[in-house]
Amino acid sequence: MSLNRYSISFIGLILFHLTVLLFLISDISISYKEALIFFQEDKNILSYIVNISSTIFGQNDFSLRVPFLMFYMGSAILMYLLTNDYFKSQRDRLINLAIFMILPGVNSAALVVNESIIVIFFTLLYIYFYKIKEKNYYLLLVLFLFIDNSFAILFLALFFYSIKIKENMMIAISLILFGISMSMYGFDIGAKPQGYFLDTFGIYATIFSPVLFLYFFYAIYRIGIKYDKDIFWYISMTAFGLSLIFSLRQRIEIEDFAPFVVIAIPIMVKLFIHSLRIRLKEFRKMHYLIARVALVILVLNFAGFVFNKYFYLIIENPKKHFAYKYHIAKELANKLKSTGITAISIDDKSLMLRLKFYGIGYSDKYYLTKLKNVKYNQIIEVNYHNKVIEKFYIIDL
Predict the structure, then answer these.
(1) Partners of 378 in the beta sheet?
(2) Of 102, 124, 86, 106, which is closest to residue 273 (Cα–Cα)?
(3) Is 44 in a helix, a strand, or coil?
(4) pTM (global) more than 0.85
(5) H-only helix segments in 83-209
(6) What is the pLDDT of residues 68-118, one digit of tens each?
(7) Cα–Cα distance, 268 to 263 (Å, whole number)
(8) Is the pLDDT of residue 185 over 90?
(9) How far apart are alpha carbons 247 and 261 in whole angstroms?
């Protein structure tokens, strides 16, 4: 079977993005939260994934992050397959995929040990079977119960959607699964009432990028009052609506909601293109301006994500860098090993756990600290682009 230019463009887009993200794996360190997941005794799906991967590929950054990168690539492929008949042209389909792939929130989820990209993948997998294969795999929904608590949102969305399409079996099963999920996990709504509504908006703006989020808000509303609402809309609207309701009284775990909200990308792109093309050319200037601004911001966000270490050159306090918690540890471990130290004690227990991942054990022979006013034997500097980010002092005990 010969490939047309759009299929070649799709393959090229996937391979380019895969190459960039594989490059980034070598550029970041394990965070404290990820180290806790890796070394925790009470296993969950994330710890099983990273430990099985490390058994196969060895204990390194590649084995830690590649499983989530594969879920990301699988999600991109499913998004492409799902939109085969969703858009009028293959070019629109590629635009949709490109936007999905460079969303700031989706990009970060591709490399971080987190349930978000797993939830996105399985949600798209279910939609694929339902829309493309025209089969409702209820066993897949049952499996979701044991993957993550956030799938309760999907079950509730399917309940609302099945009422709309009058599918009685789906109504019953989605409601039952929602009830089971809530009894197994629930959502924490017992906190002292505090308003985090604006905080939630801010987080969504960083996940989408500001302009794209504003258009998401408009698209959800516009489709809700005027156009036919499909399964993408019901899933995104349910997650977004619940997150706003919960945020009226407490700070929410955005990871529970965001994976379902980003499912809205196809309906956003479809609405924008429809709104553009029904207008005469002389009345399209505002649409082109919005598209250009949104695209520029997305590309700049992606460039900042890829070349994030250069921000240290302009940030006075390195700890204010948005990715600081994913830096330092690997470089520090390598420099310790280069001095012949493979075990050390340290006053920062979180950093100690991160170093453990890179083969630095505990010993009372050496002591590592960032305090300057001590009598030290060695200094270790962590540099990015010839700028000293952190200094550590080694004391020979």
Answers:
(1) 394
(2) 86
(3) coil
(4) yes
(5) 90-101, 104-111, 116-131, 138-144, 151-165, 168-184, 197-208
(6) 999 999 999 999 999 988 888 899 999 999 999 999 999 999 999 999 999
(7) 10
(8) no
(9) 15
Structure tokens at 188: 């924490």
* Residue 1, pLDDT score: 45
d(CA 7, CA 94): 9
Closest to 190 measured CA to CA, from 149, 257, 246: 246
Rounded to whole angstroms, how far apart are CA atoms 257 and 350? 28
Give yes or no for a contact between 256 and 153, defined as CB atoms under 8 angstroms apart.
yes
∠ Cα 264 50 381 (to 5°): 100
Q: Give the separation between CA 301 and CA 294, rounded to whole angstroms.
A: 11
Distance CA(315)–CA(303), nearest Å, equals: 17
Give the DSSP per-residue string, 277-295. HTS-GGG-HHHHHHHHHHH
Identity of the residue numbered 352: M
> Which single residue is written with the structure tokens 């775990």?
253
Tell the residue number behind the tokens 């998401």, with chain if given.
216
